[in-house]
Write a structure and sequence with these properties.
- The chain has 263 residues and is an alpha/beta fold.
- Helix content is 33%, strand content 19%.
- It has an eight-stranded mixed β-sheet, sandwiched between helices.
- The longest helix is centred in the middle third of the chain and has 18 residues.
- The two termini are 33 Å apart.
- About 3% of the residues have low confidence.
């Protein structure tokens, strides 16, 4: 873990623009590493020097469903638009946006937890987010994740402290082993599980956790337990258990909660 942090700091301190992927325009693609483009979908008016940069990270999706999706993520994104923030949906490695733009990586690897949640994949998301923040000269980076996206952000927030100013986790399976057990699936340890990656989180970090009380995928108790772990460590965390199920579009009033923290 220490090696990962050192390498990332080198990446930040000594930027090398030759590492940019050829498609990088900071609007449809952003570079994570050389020849590793991450696909973007913007909504609203995008311009430099806005106060906040908001990046939304989707959950695990089948080949027939692509983010942002008109009924779920797209709807929520439009509800969160504000004049002082640039808003982007980001396709996680291996995934394709509904616009057809694809992020670097193999879709087949997204089908298995051991390959989908490798640190190498999560680190690409972190580097892409940092590049966007620097390019748009944002004062604050706010990242919102749903389900597998929330899982990813929680771990990034620990392994690369001070990158994300506010981490908003929606329907998070934040304890991988317990999540698998509760779903009746085979249980194995995953080093990148958020509950195993708490000690590195900055004291300045602010985590907002939201889950539907009828979520039978990422059960509310998983969010509750993760929140309690953060509080026990003296970290700033807020938990909202609200009406709804697992899908972001089913969560009643979720945009009102998020708006309290992004303006």
């Amino acid at each position: 873990m220490i090696k990962d942090k050192v390498l990332f700091l080198i990446f930040l301190i000594f930027p090398n623009y030759s590492l940019a992927c050829e498609k990088e325009d900071f609007l449809t693609f952003v570079s994570a590493e050389k020849n590793k483009c991450i696909a973007l979908q913007s909504i609203g008016d995008i311009k430099q020097n806005k106060k906040n940069l908001i990046i939304f990270l989707h959950g695990d999706l089948s080949s027939g469903v692509k983010p942002p999706g008109k009924k779920g993520y797209w709807k929520l994104g439009n509800e969160l638009l504000s004049e002082n923030a640039n808003f982007f949906f980001l396709a996680r490695p291996g995934y394709t946006l509904d616009s057809g733009r694809k992020s670097y990586g193999s879709y087949q690897e997204t089908r298995k937890s051991k390959t989908n949640y490798k640190w190498e994949k999560l680190e690409l998301v972190a580097k892409a987010a940092q590049n966007l923040k620097e390019y748009y000269r944002a004062n604050s980076l706010i990242m919102i994740g749903h389900s597998g996206g929330a899982f990813s952000l929680a771990t990034i927030n620990s392994r690369i402290p001070n990158l994300i100013d506010k981490t908003i986790l929606i329907s998070c399976p934040c304890n991988f082993e317990n999540w698998r057990k509760m779903k009746g699936e085979s249980v194995f340890k995953l080093k990148t599980s958020p509950h195993r990656n708490i000690n590195g989180i900055s004291k300045d970090s602010h985590t907002i956790i939201i889950v539907g009380r009828d979520d039978t995928n990422a059960f509310p108790v998983l969010s509750k337990n993760y929140h309690e772990m953060l509080i026990t460590k003296g970290l700033k965390s807020e938990l909202y258990i609200i009406e709804g199920k697992h899908a972001s579009g089913s969560l009643i009033g979720v945009s009102k909660i998020i708006k309290r923290f992004i303006n």
